[in-house]
C-alpha cells in the first residue's frame, strides 16, 4: 500500500528541494525513472533491470509514483494482462534532475577515504 504523504503549510527556503526529494525518495524510484527515460516499459522489463528488487517493493514504488503523477500505468485488456509504464509530462520534467544525479554518481559514487571528512573552509 502506498505511503500517505502529508504536506505541511509552513514552507522554509529549502522546501522546494524537500518536496522534490519527497517525490523521488525510496530506494528504487530514481532508478525506475532513469530507465523509463528510455521509453515505455512493462513490469517485468523494469524488474529485470532492477535485479535485487522484490515484486512487492517494485509494485509499491510504481504505485506511489503513479499517485504522485510521475508515471502513467496503461492496462491492456488481454489475456494474460499487459501493463505498461511510461513517464508523464511531470515525470519527464525530472529528466535533468535524474541525469544530474547520474553524472554526480559517476563522479562520486566510489567512496574515497577523504569523502567522509568535512570540507574545511577558510575563515
Task: Give a written overview of the molecule.
InterPro entries: HTH_HxlR, WH-like_DNA-bd_sf, WH_DNA-bd_sf. One of its GO terms (molecular function) is DNA binding. Keywords: DNA-binding, Transcription, Transcription regulation. Residues 15-113 form the HTH hxlR-type domain. This is Transcriptional regulator, HxlR family. This protein has a three-stranded antiparallel β-sheet. The protein has a single domain (15-105), classed as Arc Repressor Mutant, subunit A. The protein contains six helices and three strands; from the N terminus they run H-H-E-H-H-E-E-H-H. It has helices at 15-24, 29-36, 43-49, 55-67, 89-92, 95-108; strands at 41-42, 71-76, 82-87. The chain has 123 residues and is α+β, with helices and mostly antiparallel strands. The longest helix is centred in the last third of the chain and has 14 residues, at 95-108. The N and C termini lie far apart (50 Å). Strand 2 and strand 3 form a beta hairpin. Helix content is 46%, strand content 11%.
Amino acid at each position: 500500500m502506498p505511503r500517505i504523504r502529508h504536506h505541511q503549510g509552513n514552507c522554509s527556503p529549502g522546501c522546494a528541494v524537500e518536496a522534490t526529494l519527497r517525490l523521488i525518495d525510496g530506494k528504487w524510484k530514481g532508478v525506475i525513472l532513469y530507465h523509463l527515460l528510455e521509453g515505455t516499459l512493462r513490469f517485468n522489463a523494469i524488474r529485470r533491470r532492477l535485479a535485487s528488487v522484490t515484486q512487492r517493493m517494485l509494485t509499491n514504488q510504481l504505485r506511489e509514483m503513479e499517485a504522485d503523477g510521475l508515471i502513467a500505468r496503461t492496462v491492456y485488456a488481454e489475456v494474460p494482462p499487459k501493463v505498461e509504464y511510461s513517464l508523464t509530462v511531470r515525470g519527464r520534467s525530472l529528466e535533468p534532475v535524474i541525469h544530474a544525479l547520474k553524472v554526480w554518481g559517476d563522479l562520486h559514487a566510489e567512496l574515497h577515504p577523504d569523502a567522509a571528512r568535512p570540507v574545511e573552509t577558510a575563515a
